[in-house]
Amino acid sequence: MSAAIRRHGMLLIAAGALGGIAVPDLAAATRPLLLWISLAVMALALLRVEPAALGGVLRHPRMAVVLLLWVTFGVPLLVWAALAPLLPADSPYLAAAVLIAATPSVMSAAVFAILLGADAALLTVVAIPSNAFAPAWLPLVAGLMGVSAQVDPRAMALRLALLVFGSFGAAALAIRLVGRPTLRARAPAIDTWIVLLVVASAVPCMDGVGAALAQRPLDFAAMLGFALGLNLALQALGYAVFAAAPVAAALSAGLVTGTRNMVLLLAAIGAPGGSDLGLIVAAAQLSLFVMPVMVAPVYRALRARRAT
């Protein structure tokens, strides 16, 4: 059973998101648990990052620094430059796309790295400062896009502090109590729990989406198509920009360029059903859960081609 969960993890994650849409009451009831589930996912993912790998990134931080600057500043500027001539200045699609591109990398990036074969240590090193800078950076971007009233920097900062310090503290405590050798031996069990908790987190992330989908199915379908297209286009762009790097680093660049912390952005702008901007961000969160199933064959093919 445990092996089957790991083998079909990406499909289960997508199913969890669809379950949250299909059963709106369950999504609403579990919404208060989202922060704690996210913290647990992050802590378990940190247990799967070997200190030697993390230390290697920190001793040679050039790739991490360049990637951090790319995802924080380069990508949102490019998204704005590409879409501003095509969309009205007050378009919620333009505002959402730039905000999504400016949102920090997902805190549980190591989870997706494990599932897709990217560099978990590199993505973890990039995720921490990326998220720590978000309380100052995201409200600034929101102000530039004219949607500053929908981003709460204080709530965002508190959420970040709890996620970062709580997950690192929990991981450090587990390592101290259990020990690295035991954790390495339990790696399959840890991976199974990571998949199950990500599936569980997908349900509350869809709070409000089911109702919006029922009321405005065509609009939400367009928003989902836009969000998914943006995600995939940014992943392709990230891989292309860093293609000269080692394959794991290049795949990590692609993954982190398109995969952003939508949970944080959703928490900052409020209930998804309250505005078109919120619905587009919720669609981006849904695309985040569906995306691994779609890109996994491409990631495998790229790894195989670069290995030959």
Number of distinct beta strands: 0
**Unreliable stretches:** none
Topology as a string of helices (H) and strands (E)? HHHHHHHHHHHHHHHHHH
Helicity, as a percent range: over 70%
Mean pLDDT comes to 84
What would you call the structural class?
A: mainly alpha
Strand count, sense and barrel status of the largest sheet are: none
Q: Note the total helix count.
A: 18
Q: How does the overall form come out from the CA principal axes?
A: globular
Key terms:
308 residues, globular, mainly alpha
Please summarize what this structure is.
The protein is mainly alpha-helical. 81% of the residues lie in helices and 0% in strands.
Task: Give a written overview of the molecule.
By secondary structure, the protein is mostly helical. The mean pLDDT is about 85. The chain is globular. The chain starts with a helix and ends with a helix. Helix 4 (about 35-45) runs antiparallel to helix 13 and helix 6 packs antiparallel against helix 7. The protein has 18 helices and no strands. About 45% of the residues are buried. The protein has helices at about 1-5, 10-20, 25-30, 35-45, 50-60, 60-85, 90-100, 110-115, 120-130, 135-145, 155-180, 180-185, 185-205, 210-215, 215-240, 245-260, 260-270, 275-305.
